[in-house]
Amino acid sequence: MKKTIILCLVLGMFSCKNYLEVKPQGQIDQEAAAGDPATAQNLVIGVYNSMWEGNMHGFSYVGMTNIASDDADKGSNADDGKTTYGALDNLTMDGTIGNLNDVWSGFYLGISRANQALDAVAGSPLNETLKNQLMGEVRFLRAYFYFDLVRFFGGVPKIDKVLTPGEANSATYQTKAGADTIYQLIISDLEFALANLAIKGGANTAVGRATKGAAAGLLAKVMLYRQNFQRAYSLTDSIIKQSVGTYGLLDNYEDIWRTTGADGIESVFEVQTGVNSACNAAIASYSECQGPRAGGKYGWADLGFGFGAPSQSLLDEYEANDKREAATVIFITATGTFLWDGFRIPSQDSVQNSYYNYKAYHSQIKEPYCGDRSRMPKNLRVLRYGEIRLIHAEAALALSKSGEALDDINALRPRAGLAPLGSVDRHAIWHERRVELAMEHDRFFDLIRENELEPGLAAAAFAAHGKTFADKNKVFPIPKTQIDLSGGSLKQNTGY
Fold first, then answer.
1. What gap in Å lies between CA 79 and CA 70, rounded to an integer?
2. Are 158 and 182 in contact (CB under 8 A)?
3. CA 350, CA 356: separation in Å to the nearest integer?
């Protein structure tokens, strides 16, 4: 059993709660939190548990991140998901694509739970220090939810409190706030979290809970998107220089995504999973949707649906002998492929694609598994130290600190089996970012962000991937379902 499945606070007189035993949030009496500290804490854990929802991090999330980018193709067979994942792959989606509504509703569910938890903690009899710690965790999570929403859709409704029925049906909360307004909320939440959370491994922390380092790292990433390079630099610099022994690079790159690497030295924040009696403590269909899929003349027990196949564009990005390629991509050979745990895929004739995402693979043989393929207990790595070095490098270069940027990049290359570089420019850092973080759900957003600094970059990248990128594709269309539910108060993004 992994140590990561226990996510309880060591809170003085209050007993720890098993992360996997907390009831779904809707079954917790929120009013009871005012007089019961444990109930308030359970509501906080319920916000963490929302990240298991398939609508948040599952099938559609993979489609709107990896598949929509040039890192991956749709995968599976030609007809499977043609009008949905195929539309995302080709950037031809419109507001009727159900994946958009899945992701929208999944992240807003998390926001709703966060707002409820904040209300409950504020009204509980907990001492102020503990209240601020818990509220810092929840505001970190709410910031993360909104950060993905604003990157997906641009301006979205700002809901930062528990709404009354009348408010929920009012135009005020059904219209889009501008992207700048949403970023202000994200930054405010993360600044509060940074001020109130404990350091990793410190008092009142437990594995998997948001920490001061996680808040600093996510805030630095937000600042990179806002082109506030000085703040992005100072935040990541503090993590690098003040966290010796707390954060660092895992020796073996391929171990980062295995159980052995979960919550290790490279981990800044990740979605926790585990095996419980209900077999539900995992992200719905995350590993399954990307697993190798049987097809052809050889029958075998397939591992999933085969979506999100690494693209030729991604393969072409790797330098010769870069170890990260083999750790990122499952290559199916003509004579068969043995995976790291000894599982054998018979041959290219036995599957529908030649490449699959290795980072999403979870072993049913050598890692915890409850018998439900749709609930593989694989932690989703949201933010890790390797990315902290990349953010630091990009910010340092923008501030004319090229020597520090070079140090960051050359810190990553040895474990990839590559020689150090003699100098770096922005493109060298962006290249390193792509191969270091390949298939980790950021590439689409990176292209849009980089395109702001170099107009035309995204169109060129997608053209090399065989796709056409239009200006409207900087954001996804607003789900038509949500527009209809708002009675037309919520307006569609330009161009869709």
1. 20
2. yes
3. 13
- The per-residue pLDDT for range 303-342, each reduced to its tens digit, is 899 999 999 999 999 999 999 999 999 999 999 899 999 9
Distance CA 424, CA 430 (A): 10
Looking at this protein, which amino acid is placed at residue 183? Y
CB-based burial label for 56 (10 Å; 0-12, 13-18, 19+):
buried
How far apart, in whole angstroms, are the C-alpha atoms of residue 437 and residue 442? 8
pTM of the model: 0.92
8 Å CB contact between 162 and 119: yes
Crossing angle of the two packed helices 179-196 and 212-225, in degrees rounded to 10: 160
Distance in Å from the first CA to the final CA of the chain: 48
Q: Which residues of 58-97 are buried (b: 16+ CB within 10 A; e: fewer)?
A: bbbbbbbbbbbbbbbbbbbeeebbeebbbbbbbbebebeb
Neighbour count for residue 393 (Cβ, 10 Å): 29
Of 154, 176, 172, whose CA–CA distance to 163 is shortest? 172
Buried b (16+ CB within 10 A) or exposed e, 295-321: beeeebebbbbbbbbbbebbeebbeee
Q: How far apart are the C-alpha atoms of 377 and 125, rounded to whole Å?
A: 35
- How far CA 227 is from CA of 220, 389, 398, 399, in Å, comes to 10, 17, 9, 11
CB-based contact 356:309 (threshold 8 Å): yes
pLDDT tens digits, residue range 266-301?
999 999 999 998 899 999 999 999 999 887 655 566
Q: Which residues contact 94 (CB under 8 A, 6 or more apart)?
A: 87, 477, 480, 496
